[in-house]
Amino acid sequence: MVKLPFLQGLMHSALNMKRIEKTVFLSYRRTNATWALAIFQNLKHEGYDVFFDYSSIPSGDFESAILENIKARAHFLVLLTPSAMERCGESNDWLRREIETALDNQRNIVPLMLESFDFGTPSIASQLTGKLAALKAYNGLSVPVEYFEEAMTKLRQKFLNVPLDTVLHPASDFSQQAVKEQQTAAATALPVRQVDLTAQNWCERGFIATDTNEKLRCYNEAIRLNPDYVYAYVNRGVTHLAIDNVDHAIQDFSEAIRRNPERVEYWYLNRAYAYKEKGDWVGRYKIWMRLFVATQPVP
Predict the structure, then answer these.
(1) I need a labelling partner for 228 at 20 to 30 A (CA). Which of 18, 34, 264, 290 fits?
(2) Which residues have CB under 8 Å from 112's CB, separation 6+?
(3) Residue 257 in contact with residue 267, Cβ under 8 Å?
(4) Residue 229 · residue 200 · CB < 8 Å
(5) Strands of the sheet with 23-27, listed across from one edge
(6) Which residues, other chains included, contact 130 with Cβ-Cβ below 8 Å and sequence gap of 6+?
(7) DSSP character for 261?
């Protein structure tokens, strides 16, 4: 006959066992969307429940869906690149707010360090103000393109295979529905190719380059590898503007609009500025009118 104290001991041990969760929030900049999709696809294949804003949650619902899901998920992965940190010094920056929420709620935070990222770089260190200063103390994981699968294995086995000892806050029905919608949208995407990740890395190299010709070389290579990578066109256009190649800048901004009409506001504003620099006020007026039409709500 089993003694009662022994059974009580088993029950006590069971109640005190810390649970292992497989729920993940993935935080990233739009410029690194291909990387985010690749990580989502890998973790989803391994049975993880991953939320990330894949297809742009409507602005009115964005804040509650994002913040609730950070609190409701055990693991918080943040994709770090030099360009991702560019605006983190601003208090209202969304990447910053996501990281701060994860810190406040004691999620299992894992910085994923991509191409050319270094916490010690002055331009990056200057963004780590206030609560964000704590981010560099977390044990991060480098994710090179050539060893992506190996890095993901290490992420799952070492960084995500940890017990959670903090309270998870249940998300509202609305926020749970946002998860389903984003996961469904992401599930229809084609598998991310290594060449697409390499293209984003070239764009990051262009971002941190100080020589104009080197910037253009990097953006050209990113576009050669992935002709649909719109941020490479935008960054190349900005670089052309800096050296007064206005016509080339307009071509790049126009190509960004053609390849990604979902963010027409941003691309049109860039092109309008280029027309201003060129002194073409008629062209600028036409751009403003197209922007007005493009951003009107559908009846």
Answers:
(1) 290
(2) 39, 77, 78, 79, 80, 140, 141, 143, 155
(3) yes
(4) yes
(5) 49-51, 23-27, 75-80, 108-113, 141-142
(6) 100
(7) G
The Cα angle at residue 187 between residues 94 and 150, in degrees rounded to 5: 80
* Beta strand segments in the chain, E: 19-20, 23-27, 49-51, 75-80, 108-113, 141-142, 163-164
Cα–Cα dist 99/78, whole Å: 8
pLDDT of residue 263: 57
What is the pLDDT at residue 215?
Answer: 97
Mean pLDDT, range 96-106, rounded to an integer: 95
d(CA 160, CA 168): 16
- How are beta strands 163-164 and 23-27 bridged, if at all? unpaired
SS3 58: coil
Q: What is the pLDDT of residues 23-73, one digit of tens each?
A: 999 999 988 999 999 999 999 999 999 999 998 777 667 888 899 999 999
Element (H, E) at 180: helix 173-187
Structure tokens at 203: 């764009």
Interhelix angle 173-187/33-45, rounded to 10 degrees, is 100
Q: Percent of the chain, pLDDT > 70?
A: 80
Write the pLDDT tens digit of every residue in 243-291: 888 888 888 888 887 887 665 545 445 544 454 555 543 444 344 344 4
The three state secondary structure string of 93-159 is CHHHHHHHHHHHCCCEEEEEECCCCCCCCHHHHCCCCHHHHHHHHCCCEECCHHHHHHHHHHHHHHH
Phi then psi for 23, rounded to 5 degrees? Answer: -105, 130
- 3-state DSSP assignment of residue 82: coil
Amino acid at 15: L
